[in-house]
Structure formats: structure tokens, C-alpha cells
Amino acid sequence: MFLFIYLDDILIASDCKEERLSHLRILFDHLSQHGFIVNLANCHFGLPSIAFLGHHITKDGAISLPSKVAAVLDFLRPHTTKALQELLGTVNIYHHFVSRTANLM
């Protein structure tokens, strides 16, 4: 899979320039067919790494952004249902980086 979409954020992962151009053509064709408009000012092309949805993405994989990890570590002990929901939502985003997350919770 070369395409990752979350709401209006799209990430294309390609191994080489030729593949990236092919992926971009496919993406832009589909967006155009369905009436979507791309704001090029918000686009970044051909980067070796990028921050995407709270992660630093490279060819080697993804790591959590330090600022996002700090936000989780700095969470106060929840004393309300809403505060607990916020904490669990945040932890859920990063659960694949922590082994046995469910056991820790």
C-alpha cells in the first residue's frame, strides 16, 4: 500500500522517483474525478522524511514525535470521565509503539 489517508491528510510512500510520479498521477486522477481540489501550498513532495499525524516518517519507519510523547507523559491523573477519555484516546494513537499497552492500562 502506498497511500495513507486520514481526513484531509494524505501520505504517499514510494521507493523511487518513478514510482512516486506514478503514485501521484493515480492520486491526482482519482481526486480530480471526484471533484477534489488540492491546495499546493499545503503539499510537500519528494521529502526523505516528514512529520505526519504526530509521527516522524522516514524510509525506515515511523517514530512518535518527541512533543507528542511528552504530552502523554505529562498527562495528569484523570479525575473525570472526560479526562479519562482524553487520556485513552491519546494513548490509543500511540499504542503500537508500546508493547502490551492493554496490560499497562
UniProtKB/TrEMBL annotation:
PROSITE patterns: RT_POL. Gene3D superfamilies: 3.30.70.270. One of its GO terms (molecular function) is RNA-DNA hybrid ribonuclease activity. InterPro entries: DNA/RNA_pol_sf (IPR043502), Rev_trsase/Diguanyl_cyclase (IPR043128), RT_dom (IPR000477), Viral_Replic_Matur_Polypro (IPR051320). Residues 1-57 form the Reverse transcriptase domain. It holds the Pfam family RVT_1. Its EC number is 3.1.26.4. Belongs to the beta type-B retroviral polymerase family. HERV class-II K(HML-2) pol subfamily. This is ribonuclease H. It comes from Aldrovandia affinis.
